[in-house]
Structures are given as C-alpha cells and as structure tokens.
Amino acid sequence: MKYHLRIEVCLKPGHSDPEGETTAHLLKELGYKVEKVNVSKVYTVVLNAESREEAKVKAEEMCKRLLANPTKDHYVITVDEK
Known about the structure:
Structural class: alpha+beta
Distance between the termini: 8 Å
Strand order of the largest sheet: 2-1-3
CATH class: Alpha Beta
Order of helices and strands: EHEHE
Shape: elongated
Number of domains: 1
CATH superfamily: Phosphoribosylformylglycinamidine synthase subunit PurS
C-alpha cells in the first residue's frame, strides 16, 4: 500500500537559526511587526509499506539516517494513506 509521509525537520530550542533571523529582519524592514521567524524543512515522501506502522518506522529510520541531525534537529512525522 502507498503511504504519503510528511516529515518536518526544525531546529531544537537553543540552536541558532540564521536563515530565520535574516528573514525576520527583512520582514521588519518591509514593515511587518514580526517577532520571530523559525525555518524548517518539509519532506514529502511516497512510500510503499505493508502497514501504517511500518511506514512510520521507515520514516523514523529516514530521519535518523539522513534527514535530521539528532544533535540539533527535531522532527515530526505524519503518515497518510493514499
């Protein structure tokens, strides 16, 4: 069965986010009353798996092996059947 994975990877609290800081600064220059901007990456993956649980396990493996750095990143996985 095909599963659609949405994996959002963002920085853990306490790590600097230079891209977010730059974006916040530029938005302020444009006149927006922005307090803070955090940047994250979203991966959308179509995966063949036997079950939703297997798809979730595979997504966790992907994060640990490639998509996220456990030292500085936090990730959230959403699994949908399609």
